[in-house]
Structures are given as structure tokens and as C-alpha cells.
């Protein structure tokens, strides 16, 4: 790539254009002039509209040398052009503005990618390994990077002599990229033995190694890089136990050739040495931090068996202490002092303290769509601030949580003078616009096709705005909605959003009715009113034993000592048969606004928030066939009613990555007011308390791009539907079946059918998950244990009967892509009835395992 570094070409271009005017301007006439527009020549595969979109923010700005280098750097960062020749042209005869013209030479475009010489690795696997794709601009740097990727793949598969050469061949329609491969022999490890190991057996040392002899379910392929890491692990194992002189003195490799396979016998020779203890640590030159402050960073005490790994980890804490406070130019030397007679190892730290480093410039690269200010506002550090490693890490975490970028790579080159640093943030943008089309055939005979069309962009126009439109047409629901959210109102951490939706829903046959099929008709206001259910008539029974109580007193009823036979049955898992249930339809027009503010505190991100929504709703059903048990439902049929909701909330969040945390916790308290002093047709209060925690159990590097990692996640959420503290005269607790709380099998209680029928007033959702990344930025494997519980009454969680818990265990794939937040599990459900486990039959392998296939959406990020 030939980069134009001087303005000589720019000046020559200006001189060439001078004959167009009668009066010769000064050579640097363009400096200080506004940029009117940009023009281009030489574009072929690259869209001019794309380039103009990138340069549009510079139109109207005053031309300076620094601004020009920024513009040219953005163009080169696209990796579209091998050469860019700029020129300045006057916008008018008065030279009042400047037109910047770019003559470009594009990199060749890839038309085809082929491989030659690969006998043991498939083309498809090689294509997945390289970064170049058809239609990409190919550079020598990209070609060399893909060569290295292919060689690394072959090394992982046991071909240490593999070589690759990338060749560009011109074709009729473009450039063909050909990778010519020489594979060489595959080497398989047949045996690994040790010599000189007196302290630890071969089995222990072999267990430390990733390199394994060929065996059952073990390929045994030899990878030199992995083997060298194994040797270091063995030495580290000894050093962690005080044997700091332990060394691998020699490795003997014997090859055995059988056909096209090369087998390897490895013998590792060890010198174990003597065990050392820690003799202490001293410091010299430290004035900023006291010796006591530095000493407490080290966990080893004098006389302890020396652990080099623990000491190195603690020494890094010392370095971080200085770095996090901006002292990155300090010179810190660590001197080891070893007493071979006493078998003691001591350390002396020499510190040359210098002034704090400051950020001179923050430079962004790779953000072609996202505006600079969207990135900069997420960084808790600005130009001129003291350099802080902690703040930079926090800023990078904020950028990852935006989900706008697939890669974020910081650099910290030196600034223009001593004491100054530049912070360069390289990003690779991810697609943030999401278009969903879904069609499902089946379901209702009246509406056999369910369709969903949704478009959203969480980085709308690159301004960090969340905007979306959705249309759903399903057998039981049709919705048209719009939403808009700005997370940085007025440049502050102040969130504001609005939403508007129009919807129609069919509840399905979930609504209790009262038509005297097998009972009596109640008004719904009697103390012992119960819906038709086929078995229970509303007679009074003891709340604890279920025995009939013929004539209870009002005191017994009010105290809850007696309940109806139907209520007792519900508490013990009875569900109304479908023939005693009905459905109704609802229509709603809703409007909502929300706001919140994010405070960054030492204990986490504190976010108070609120939202208000109002909706106009109505419901209808066939009154000639159905009579809802709920008198409110009967009363509201055919009426357009307002439903007003106001939510107050606060949360505390320390999670590292919102959408797939590996550490931290999330605490939230929400209080939803519906009706009451707000007016409207529904009246209840819904408090929700939520707690989540995440802990990385271990994180072991296995390959360059994959770690063997387990994350333990736990969640609990308690929700109530309570009576309003004030309601209009004549009103009471009023909530439709849609407002009630359910184990729905989708968001709560994975795989379970929706219950309780008619809904409950207490819901306690609990789960524990063990998570392992398959491709960390794309999908994970999760094991889970669900144990939600419900109650039809307002009940303390410890008083919910065991029969009302819905248990489930399973495992499956969880996608963490924002546009594809789906989860697919294989599960087994059970509940406890009469103190016995009752396993539920699923549709998978019904004659044996009886498992369930479970599909859910990982929707709950905040």
C-alpha cells in the first residue's frame, strides 16, 4: 500500500487547476476554508454513496492539516484502496470554499477462493478458517493473515511441516485467490514418558499436559506450540510448590513411520532441584505508596513454601496499583535473591517514580457507521485526564455492552512528548439493524397462517438510538407497534423513550366460567363463589386438612381458616378441565413513556427509572354461549376502558457483559401501580424483587480463540399482585386474567404448560444455570435447574406448598447474538405430589425418557 504522506501532491494538484482562474492564489489558499463537498474518481467496486456517507460529517468544517489527515486515515482504514491521491479544488472564483477530490486505486475484489494440495482437510473447513470472502477487497496483509490461519489449522491437526502460499490470479470477472498447500506428514503421539521425576508420578505430570498419546476418543495429534506450553506447565507445577530450579533439561523424540503416518515417542527429562521457602520482600524508592501498602498486596508470608505463580500474580497487583493511578512511566525492577544454602528466595523491588501519564488524544478507528461521540461518551476518561487502566477497562466494557461491535482492541502508543499517551480504540462494527420475517402454518383453523414482520435498529443512523417497528399476525394475537429510545438524552446518562401499539388478542380457553354445567350460578361476590369445574361446588373445608366444615363463622372465613373445596383443590394442583373454560377477545391501543438515569458508583451502576403507560381496552365474547365467572369481566364486556400504569424502579448492576455475564450481580426492585389514584378500570399493585448473580468457576485457555470456561448463574424473582391502597368508591382489586401471574413455560418454568388456570397473585421464579461457551460471542451450552412456584393468593414464598413448585432440569444451546436471542433445550420436568416425585411425560422418546424440547427467548437483559 502506498500512502501519501506529504502535501506535495496536494499542492501540485492545486497548481494544475490554477489556469482555470485569472489570478493566482497563494499556495495554501485552502487552509482555513470550509469544505463544500468531496468528489471521487477511480471508484469501481466501491459505492460512492458509502464513501460520501462516511465523509458527510466533514462537509462544512474548516479545512486544516490535522482534519485532512483524519479524513484520509478514515478512508485508508476501510481497506478498500491501494492508493489515494488527494487534490484541492476551489469551489468558486473567489476561493471562498474548497472541494476535496480523491483519485483512488482500489484493491482487487475477490471473485473466487480455491485451494490446491489439501488432501486431509476439506475445502469447507479451510473456508471457515480464513477471513477473506467473495466480494472482499484483498490486500497482501489479509492474504498473509489467512496463510497464517491455515498453517495454524494444520498445526492443530498435527501437520507441523505444512506450508501455504496465497496467490492472486486475474480472471474474467475479478481476482481469484488460490491457496497452494503442502501438507506434509501428520504426526501422532504414541507415548509420553518421563525421566528424573522423583517427587511426582508420571500420571500426575501427564495430566497437566494437553498433548496426549493416541487412545480411545483421543486423536493424539502433535502440535509443537501446544507441546511447548505443556513443558512450561510442568515447570510451573514444580515452581508452585517451591521447586523454583526445576527444569526440563532435555526432550527426546523418536519417530516411527507407518505408511503415511508418523508416530512419535516422547521422553521428557527432568531436574527437580530443591524446595525453597519465601524469604520476604523489600522495596526501595517508593514515595507515592507506603511500604506497608505495597507489602499487603502480597499473600505469601516469610517462611511459606514459595509459590512462583502466586507471587507473580501479586507482583502484577503492585504494577496495576501504579498503572491504575496513572503512573505508567515508572521504572520498576524486580531483583531475585536466592540463598541456596538456606533454600530461601527473597525479592527486592526497585521503584523509580515519575509523574502521572495523561491522555493526549483519543483516536477512534473502524467506526464507519457509529458516530465518534457515541463511542466517546461511553468512556469514563477524556483527553487531558490522568491515564487510568481501570477507567479504560470500564469504558471498553461499556462499549461491549452496547452490542454495536464484534471486536474492540485498544492501543496506547506514546504521545507527542514525555508524560503523554494516546488512546487508540480499534473497533469492528457489528450489524445492529434486525429484520425478522416469520411464517408459521397450522394452529387455528380460522387463521391457519401466523406471520411476524419486525424491523429494529439499536444504533439507528449511527447515533446510538434504538428504533423499531413490529407487526404480528398470529392465531391468538395481532399487534402493530413502534418504539424509540435514546440512552443519552441531552448528552447525559439519561434514558428516555416512547412507545405506541395497537393490538388484538384472544385469551384462548383459559378463562373460568360459570354456566351451571355441573353446579350453581354465582354472582361472583359470594364468599364461597367458585367457577364451574366439574368436581367442586364451593362448600367450605378446613384450609389445612380439606375436611368439610358445614357452617363456618365469618371470623373463620375472614381469617382464612376455612376455604372452598375448589380453592383447596387449586392449592394442591387441581386445574379446571378445558370443557369448563372459555375465551374472550381484547383490543387495546397503548402509549407509554419511560425514563431513567445511570449513576456510576463504587458498588456498581445505580439506575433509578420510571415509566407511565395508558391504554384504551375493550373485551368481547359470545354472551349466548359463555358467562365469565369474574363479574368484572362480565361488566366490562363491550366497554372501552382506560388502563393506567405507573412503574417506579431502581437497580444496582455490576455485571461485566449485560447480555452474557461471567461475573457480577444484578439487584432490582420494581413497584408497578395500576389504577387506584391513577384512575382507570383495573386496580392493583405489582411489586417485583429480582436478584441475579454470576461467578466464573474457572477459565482455562485451550486454543487461541477458545477457553474452557464454566460460569455459575443464579436467579430469583418474587412478584405479587396486591390490592390497591386506594380505589374509587365501589371498586376493589381488579385484574384481568392477562394481568395475573403464571408459570407460562416460555419465560418462567421452561417447558411447563401455562398455569394456574386463571392466574395467580404470587409468582416466585427461580433457576440455577451452569454455562459453558462454545463460541463465546455467538453461543453457549447451558445446563439448568428450574424451580418456580406459584400461589393463587398473596402468599409468603416460604408458605407456598411444595405441590405448587414446577421443577425442570435440562441443557441446550443459548445464542447471545442480539438479533438471534434464542434458546433451545432438551428437558425433563417433574413435580412433587403427596411428597413423591411425579415425573412428567414429554413428547421426545415418549416410550422411554419422555423428554421435552423447549424453545425460549433470552429477553431479560435489564
TrEMBL record:
Gene3D superfamilies attached to this UniProt entry: membrane protein fhac, membrane protein fhac: a member of the omp85/tpsb transporter family
A Pfam family per the record: POTRA
A single Gene Ontology CC term: cell outer membrane
Location (main, coarse): membrane
GO BP annotations, alphabetical order: membrane assembly
Top-level taxon of the source organism: Bacteria
UniProt-listed PROSITE patterns: POTRA
Compartment(s): Membrane
Boundaries of every POTRA domain copy: 108-184, 187-273, 276-354
Protein name (database record): Outer membrane protein assembly factor BamA
Originating organism: Winmispira thermophila (strain ATCC 49972 / DSM 6192 / RI 19.B1) (Spirochaeta thermophila)
Amino acid at each position: 500500500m502506498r500512502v501519501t504522506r506529504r502535501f506535495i501532491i496536494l499542492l501540485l494538484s492545486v497548481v494544475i487547476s490554477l489556469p482555470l482562474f485569472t489570478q493566482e492564489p497563494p499556495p495554501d489558499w485552502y487552509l482555513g476554508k470550509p469544505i463544500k463537498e468531496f468528489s471521487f474518481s477511480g471508484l469501481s467496486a466501491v459505492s460512492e454513496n458509502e464513501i460520501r456517507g462516511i465523509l458527510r460529517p466533514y462537509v462544512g468544517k474548516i479545512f486544516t492539516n490535522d482534519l485532512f489527515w483524519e479524513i484520509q486515515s478514515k478512508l485508508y482504514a476501510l481497506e478498500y484502496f491501494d492508493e489515494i491521491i488527494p487534490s484541492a479544488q476551489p469551489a468558486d472564483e473567489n476561493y471562498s470554499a474548497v472541494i476535496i477530490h480523491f483519485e483512488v486505486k482500489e484493491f482487487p475484489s475477490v471473485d473466487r477462493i480455491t485451494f490446491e494440495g489439501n488432501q486431509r482437510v476439506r475445502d469447507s473447513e479451510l473456508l471457515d478458517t480464513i477471513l477473506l470472502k467473495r466480494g472482499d477487497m484483498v490486500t497482501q496483509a489479509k492474504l498473509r493473515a489467512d496463510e497464517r490461519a491455515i498453517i495454524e489449522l494444520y498445526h492443530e491437526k498435527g501437520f507441523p511441516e505444512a506450508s501455504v502460499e496465497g496467490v492472486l490470479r486475474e480472471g474474467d470477472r475479478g481476482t481469484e485467490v488460490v491457496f497452494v498447500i503442502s501438507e506434509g506428514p501428520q504426526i501422532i503421539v504414541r507415548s509420553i514418558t518421563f525421566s528424573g521425576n522423583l517427587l511426582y508420578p508420571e500420571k500426575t505430570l501427564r495430566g497437566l499436559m494437553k498433548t496426549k498419546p493416541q487412545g480411545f476418543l483421543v486423536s493424539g495429534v502433535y502440535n509443537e506450540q501446544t507441546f511447548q506450553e505443556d513443558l512450561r506447565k510442568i515447570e510451573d507445577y514444580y515452581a508452585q510448590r517451591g521447586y523454583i530450579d526445576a527444569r526440563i533439561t532435555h526432550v527426546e523424540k523418536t519417530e516411527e513411520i507407518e505408511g503415511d503416518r508418523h508416530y512419535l515417542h516422547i521422553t521428557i527429562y527432568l531436574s527437580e532441584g530443591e524446595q525453597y521457602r519465601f524469604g520476604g520482600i523489600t522495596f526501595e524508592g517508593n514515595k507515592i505508596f507506603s511500604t506497608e501498602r505495597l507489602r499487603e498486596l502480597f499473600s505469601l508470608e516469610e517462611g511459606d513454601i514459595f509459590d512462583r505463580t502466586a507471587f507473580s500474580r501479586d507482583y502484577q497487583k503492585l504494577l496495576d496499583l501504579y498503572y491504575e493511578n496513572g503512573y505508567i512511566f515508572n521504572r520498576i525492577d524486580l531483583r531475585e535473591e536466592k540463598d541456596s544454602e538456606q533454600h530461601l528466595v527473597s525479592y527486592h523491588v526497585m521503584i523509580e517514580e515519575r509523574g502521572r501519564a495523561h491522555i493526549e488524544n483519543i483516536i477512534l478507528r473502524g467506526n464507519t457507521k457509529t458516530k465518534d461521540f457515541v463511542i466517546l461518551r461511553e468512556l469514563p476518561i477524556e483527553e487531558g485526564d490522568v491515564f487510568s487502566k481501570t477507567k479504560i477497562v470500564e469504558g471498553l466494557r461499556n462499549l461491549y455492552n452496547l452490542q454495536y461491535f464484534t471486536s474492540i482492541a485498544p492501543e496506547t502508543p506514546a504521545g507527542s512528548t514525555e508524560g503523554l499517551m494516546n488512546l487508540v480504540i480499534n473497533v469492528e462494527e457489528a450489524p445492529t439493524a434486525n429484520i425478522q420475517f416469520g411464517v408459521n402454518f397450522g394452529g387455528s383453523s380460522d387463521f391457519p397462517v401466523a406471520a411476524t414482520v419486525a424491523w429494529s435498529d439499536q444504533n439507528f443512523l449511527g447515533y446510538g438510538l434504538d428504533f423499531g417497528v413490529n407487526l404480528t399476525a398470529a392465531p391468538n394475537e395481532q399487534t402493530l407497534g413502534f418504539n424509540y429510545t435514546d440512552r443519552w438524552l441531552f448528552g447525559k446518562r439519561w434514558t428516555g423513550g416512547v412507545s405506541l401499539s395497537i393490538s388484538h388478542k384472544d385469551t384462548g380457553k383459559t378463562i373460568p366460567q360459570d354456566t351451571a354445567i355441573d353446579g350453581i350460578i354465582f354472582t361472583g361476590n359470594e364468599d364461597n363463589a367458585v367457577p364451574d369445574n366439574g368436581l367442586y361446588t364451593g362448600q367450605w373445608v378446613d384450609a389445612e386438612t380439606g375436611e368439610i366444615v358445614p357452617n363456618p363463622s365469618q371470623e373463620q372465613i375472614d381469617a382464612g381458616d376455612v376455604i372452598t373445596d375448589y380453592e383447596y383443590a387449586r392449592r394442591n394442583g387441581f386445574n379446571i378441565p378445558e370443557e369448563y373454560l372459555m375465551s374472550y377477545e381484547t383490543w387495546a391501543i397503548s402509549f407509554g413513556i419511560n425514563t431513567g438515569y445511570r449513576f456510576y458508583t463504587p458498588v456498581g451502576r445505580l439506575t433509578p427509572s420510571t415509566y407511565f403507560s395508558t391504554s384504551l381496552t375493550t373485551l368481547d365474547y359470545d354472551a349466548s354461549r359463555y358467562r365469565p365467572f369474574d363479574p368484572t369481566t362480565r361488566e366490562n364486556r363491550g366497554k372501552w376502558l382506560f388502563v393506567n400504569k405507573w412503574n417506579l424502579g431502581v437497580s444496582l448492576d455490576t455485571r461485566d457483559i449485560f447480555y452474557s455475564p461471567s461475573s457480577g450481580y444484578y439487584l432490582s426492585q420494581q413497584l408497578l401501580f395500576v389504577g387506584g389514584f391513577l384512575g382507570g378500570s383495573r386496580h392493583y399493585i405489582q411489586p417485583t424483587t429480582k436478584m441475579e448473580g454470576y461467578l466464573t468457576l474457572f477459565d482455562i485457555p485451550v486454543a487461541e480463540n477458545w477457553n474452557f470456561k464454566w460460569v455459575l448463574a443464579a436467579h430469583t424473582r418474587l412478584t405479587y399482585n396486591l390490592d390497591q391502597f386506594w380505589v374509587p368508591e365501589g371498586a376493589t382489586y381488579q385484574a384481568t386474567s392477562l394481568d395475573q401471574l403464571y408459570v407460562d413455560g416460555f419465560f418462567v418454568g421452561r417447558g411447563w404448560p401455562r398455569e394456574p388456570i386463571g392466574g395467580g397473585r404470587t409468582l416466585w421464579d427461580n433457576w440455577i444455570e451452569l454455562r459453558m461457551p462454545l463460541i463465546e460471542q455467538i453461543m453457549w451450552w447451558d445446563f439448568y435447574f428450574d424451580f418456580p412456584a406459584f400461589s393463587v393468593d398473596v402468599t409468603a414464598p416460604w408458605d407456598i406448598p411444595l405441590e405448587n413448585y414446577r421443577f425442570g432440569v435440562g441443557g441446550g444451546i443459548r445464542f447471545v447474538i442480539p438479533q438471534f436471542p434464542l434458546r433451545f433445550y432438551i428437558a425433563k420436568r417433574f413435580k412433587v405430589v403427596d411428597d413423591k416425585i411425579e415425573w412428567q411425560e414429554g413428547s421426545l422418546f415418549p416410550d422411554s425418557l419422555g423428554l421435552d424440547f423447549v424453545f425460549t427467548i433470552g429477553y431479560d437483559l435489564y
